[in-house]
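Supplementary Methods S3. Input chains for the assembly prediction are listed below.
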Amino acid sequence: MFLHTTLLQRDRRTRQLDSSVALLQTSSGLERPMAGSPPGVLMDSTVAQVSAFLYYQAQVLGRLTSNAAFKNLFKTTIFNQIEKDFGEFIDSSARIKPTALHHMYEWNKAGQETARLFKIKRLDADGLSFRIGYDFKLSKTAVPSKNKKQKKKYIFANKAAVMEAGMPIIIRPRSAERLVFELDGITVFMPKGSSVTVRSPGGRGSSNQFRLHYGRYFGGQLVNSSIKASGFQQIFNSKMAKALNTPAGIRKVQYSFTPGKIRLEADMELQAAFGGSL
Amino acid sequence: MSVDYKIDSMFELRKYLWNELKEADIFNPYDYYSDNLGVEIIPIIPVQQSPELDQFLNGKKHIVYDKIGISYEENWMICCEKILFTVYSTDVSDIYEIRNLMTDLFRRMDESAKDLNYSIISDHSEISGTSCNMLGATQQVNGVAYQCIKSGNKLIWGKGTPQNWPDLSFNFHNISLLEISPISPSEELQGFLSADIILEVKYSRFIGDNGRFA
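Predicted C-alpha cells for the full assembly:
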C-alpha cells in the first residue's frame, strides 16, 4: 500500500516547477542590460547593477528545485518527523486498543517501540514530492504457549502480514507423526494427514486495523502536524536567506557583469547553504 | 522550594475537561463515587490504569487517554504534546455528546488554551465559589478580578479574570483538535462503542531565571 504524499497539489506543483523554469528564462532578458552601456562620456552603473542583482536572485530561486542537496534535506527532514510521529501514533493506539493492533508487535508487547513489526519507507518521486509506503517486519520471537511441557518453540514469522490481511492459516504436521498442542486447556493430538484451519489468526478485530490507522494518520491533520513540527520551515528560511545574500562581487560598483560568473556565484551560494553538489 | 516533578500538564487538562463534562450534565459525578475509597473517581483515566479500573467502570461511560508523544521545539520553553482520548460508552448518543463538547472546547487553539488557563486560576483560587453579599460587586486578589454572580439561589464569587498574568505551574498556549474518528464498536470492551479524539497541546512550565522548572 502506497500513499502519494506531496506538499503541493499536483497542479500547483507543476505550476511551481514551470515558474522556476520561467524565472530562469525570463531572467535571461537581464543579461543585456547587465553587460552595461557602450562606452561614452557619461558612465552609469545603475542599470547594470540592478539587473545583476535581480539576475542573481532569479538564478538562486530558479535553481533551488534542481538542487540535489536541497531536495534531500527537504525530504529527509519531513520524512524523519513523519516516521517518528506515525510510530508513536500507532504505539499509542496499540496501548489503548491492543486487540486491534497487537499483531503489529512481537508477542505480548503491543505498543512498545522496540517490538514493532511495521516500518514506513520513503519512495522518491519527481521534484520535491515523495511517496510513503509501509513494510511488515518478520516476527523473531516464539509464539507463547501455556503448555509448559512444550519444548519446541515455533516462530510465526509472517504474523503481522497474515493477521493484518485476516488470512486463514492451516496447521498440519509436516514431518512429525502427530502434532500435539493445547487448545482452550485441552491437549489436542493431531495425526499426520489431518489439519486444522484458523480462520482469523489475530482475532477478527485485528484484520485491516493497521491499514485503517495508517489511512487516518495520512488522511487527516496528523500528517500536517508532523510536517509543521519537522521544523523544515525554519531550516529553509535561514538557509535560503543565506543563499539570497548578495555576494560581494555583485554589491561592488561595476559597469558590466558577466552572466556566467553570476550563475556560478548562485551555484556556489546554494552549495554553501544547503551543501552537496548541483 | 523544591520543584514538584510529579505534576503533569495532563492533570490540569483532565481536571478542566471533567469540570466541563459535569457542568454540561454529560456525566453525573455520583455515578463515579467509590464507596471503597470514599472519593469521586474521575472517569478520564490513563491507559496504564485501565486494567485496575475496568471493574469499577464496567458498563459506565468513560474516557481512556494516552500521550502519543512529547517534544520540545527549537524554543525549548514550549512543550508540544499529542494526546489520544478514546471515549467509551454503550450509548452512541453519549459519545456524540462527549465528542461535541470536546470539539467545542478544544478546536479554538489560543482561545481554548486561554479558557484552560482561566480554569486553572479559578481552581487554585480560594475566592472563587465562596459566597458574596452584593450581586455585581468586584474585588481583585493576587492580580485576578472576581465578580459576584448569582448561582441558583446563592450569590458567589465567579471564576475570576486575570488582570496581570499569575505564575501558573503550567501556562497553556495552544490547543488544537487533530483528529476525530468515527464511532465504532469497541473490540476491547464488549458491548461498548468507542471513538478517538486526538489533541495537540502546547504549553510551558513555570521556570526560574536559569530556565529550569521552578
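Chain A touches chain B through 23 residues (CB under 8 Å). The radius of gyration of chain A is 30 Å.
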